[in-house]
């Protein structure tokens, strides 16, 4: 449980994680540009830079959740008490989006 004293620290971590995605993408794109020694040629590898950024970001999330005594994977578990309502909401949203 987060107390009011932990909220500024949690907000700083959240902001650092958001900014880290931009910084990591730039870092990986620059590292990729070193290989062909051309920024223009490295543009074709932006998917690789994005994938590496995502992998590092997920690893950071695992670490942050573990440091707070929680589990990252628990975010994706279904609640048995509300799964019927959740399915109805998902079907409604999918039908509205086409």
Features of this protein?
98 residues, mainly alpha, 4 helices
What's this, in brief?
The chain has 98 residues and is mostly helical. It is built from 4 helices and no strands.
Number of helices: 4
Low-confidence stretches: none
Which structural class do you get from the secondary structure elements?
mainly alpha
> Helix amount, in percent?
over 70%
Strand fraction equals under 5%
Q: Kindly state the mean pLDDT as a whole number?
A: 87
What is the distance, rounded to the nearest whole angstrom, between the alpha carbons of the first and last residues? 39 Å
Total discrete domains: 1
What global shape is seen? flat
How many beta-strand elements?
A: 0
Main sheet attributes: strand count, strand direction, barrel closure: none
Tell me the radius of gyration: 19 Å
Encode the helix/strand succession as letters. HHHH
